[in-house]
Amino acid sequence: MLELTANTIHYFQAPKDYFWKWVENGTVLEFANGRTICYREDLTFILSNLVIPDQVPVGTILLLLCACKDNYKELFEPDSYLFKLGYLPVYTEEEHIFVKQRMQQVLELLALVNALPFEYRSGLKRIALFQAILEREGGYEGKRLKSLTNEFKSGSLDEQVFGFQRELSYTLVNSDIAPLVYALQQFQDTAALELKLRTGLSVLPQPAKVGLPAPVPQDLMEQLAADLKTAGIARLSKKIIAALNIPMHLSGSSDQSIGGVSDISNRGHFDKLLLSELAQDDLVLTARLANNEALFLQREAMPASQQQQWHIILDTTLKMWGMPRVFGLAAGLAFNESKKQVQMDAWALGGESIVEVDLNSRQGIITALEQLDTGFNCGPALKKLMTEQVSAKDKYILITGSHYQQDAAFMRAFGQVKAQLDYLVEVDRDGRIALYETLGKKYHLVNQALIDLQETLFTQNRTLRKSYEVAGLPAMLNAADFPLLFPASKIKLHQQTVFKYAGDRVAILTLDRRLLSWQHKDQGALELIEQVDSGDAYFGEAKGFLLLLVRNFAAATLKIYQVDAANQTVLVNTIDNLQAVHTCFDGGLFHVSTADSVTAIDPFTGHQTSSRFTVETIKKAAVIPHFQVLNQVKKLINNGYSVVNSAKSIYVHTAGKLFVDQRELRLDPHGRFLTWKENGMGAVEWITPAKRETMEIAHLANLKFTKYMWADGSEAVLDSRGLLHLKSSDTRVAECTLLLVLEKTTAGWSADGKLTGNPYFTGNRQTGVMLAADFYAAYIQPFIQRLK
């Protein structure tokens, strides 16, 4: 008991000439300049609820209480009074240097604490704040400090505590500031301390280092479709698979994992019980199972399937040159794709030569296309192959042209090996393909089809807005049909970036390499191409298509975009190894001059012919001869608004309003429209994002996306095209996109197909349109409420 009394007196007794003291008979604690720090009851209440060691002195708590005041620097002048504590005459030289350095660190921590939002440093929240700052690893029960506080609260020691003062020493000063110096090492800034108060963690846990799975190999057909050289043959192969309906026993799809029902037995698995048995009473069923009286279905056993190797034999002789050669190779690829279980071997037959080809890789397909032989028929090579390679267990498919029946030399060789072949595929220049089974004396026609080769091989369309299934992208970027029209953004009018086509329509290539199109003054832009390759641009128009040639001189490549604005499709042709110096469009062709010649390029096929232009005349040709007045374009695209392409902050204001910088998203009193309005009160932020980062999107490299993330998982993405994408952490709320336009009412779109706002941006759509107030209540307000 005597020890507790002595410790209590020592703990609460004020030092002489220190920064704090007891006044008003021990009811008030004052700073050295006479300002009130707190009342006795406030101090004892805080100490009673802290779980810290009693080695943390009262002076440490009082310094933290000073920092919790809003205007603590003006109120207590801590820089001046605490600085003096570094120059006490009782210090040695080393102690003086040490205290001076540590006092500066204490002032840094006090400033860090004072920078917290007021809610964290007022009222009961101060207890959690002091606990976070003063607690140590391992934790403490805090019983000794509670005992000292209870003894002090009793009042029995007031005379000893308030009637005397302790001597000021280096040890006393150092014990007061040491916990704060240690805390500064734990919390380098206010954000770290706020994180500790909100989550109980000083540092957010890092994502687990999980190794990425091995990339899934791209499907062969996808590889071929992505290459302009082989895209046609991929489309033709798919059409052959669909049209020819390859037999099941050829493709292997008839191999079933289970047979039919062959019998009924009194033994088996419970999942094979007859349904009638399940209708029995529980006790009856149990008795029948125990006595082997219950009946089970018995499946028939499938015969052991013998794995067979399939082989494709391609005729590449003279009469197969041209379209039949491509048609035949596409047929071989179709059979190879259908037989997924086992890859097929393939040979290209010439008059005498036998070359093994690979139909399982893109490069192998390209190499197979290059196989040409000047022989008149492949009979000798076929006979040699079947003699050397034939196996009774294997299957063989011969692909040739319909001409073989008129070639006597071939028919002699074919007759000798016909019994060893299993199937014969005939292809013709007119697109006819037939599949015969050759077993027996007569051919058996299995299937036939007629395919438009010209359309399949040389016409390629892709949707203008592609869907990129990439994690983290706003829903709008994966939307097949984004209904909102775009605002005029990042536009510099120039002859090489502006083109008038299809009457009064105007196409503009923006600074961020997007191709936009305007049709009416009262409607926004349609995004024809979301990303055009870098290079000089040249426009043209033919056959109802908008044509755009992009010349990359350094890379010696040309890209020609064929845009069908009405159907929202675009075709891209790439021409390599052509270093164009000058370019113009005339007579439905692009005319390109190199260092010593001029070439005319058909924009629809990429076919190159000699041009009627010379190097000199092409330099003088007008790039856009029919377009003269840029003012007409200005009047068409400028509708009295500006676009926000970048912002410093996105946050929710204390009034529950969404802000981008100092622009508030405002719903008019009648709930008819949404606008972004300047609002000075936006300087007061409330709920700010915890993290901000720049998103890198490979297929949109010229656009800038800035993602803002809140602690609850909600996200906002600022799109440099003038779009704001909102994604709530509440998965029940659909993602939405808002246009960031000023001086004009805006528009919005949600991922579940709803839209609202100015008809200038909605295009006067009639379906899925919501009143602005309903749209705000369904998507914007839940986003804000989730943050609150």
From TrEMBL:
<dbReference type="Pfam" id="PF19915">
    <property type="entry name" value="bpX0"/>
</dbReference>
<dbReference type="InterPro" id="IPR045553">
    <property type="entry name" value="bpX1"/>
</dbReference>
<feature type="domain" description="MoxR-vWA-beta-propeller ternary system">
    <location>
        <begin position="707"/>
        <end position="787"/>
    </location>
</feature>
<dbReference type="InterPro" id="IPR045554">
    <property type="entry name" value="bpX0"/>
</dbReference>
<dbReference type="Pfam" id="PF19917">
    <property type="entry name" value="bpX1"/>
</dbReference>
<protein>
    <submittedName>
        <fullName>Uncharacterized protein</fullName>
    </submittedName>
</protein>
<feature type="domain" description="MoxR-vWA-beta-propeller ternary system">
    <location>
        <begin position="34"/>
        <end position="196"/>
    </location>
</feature>
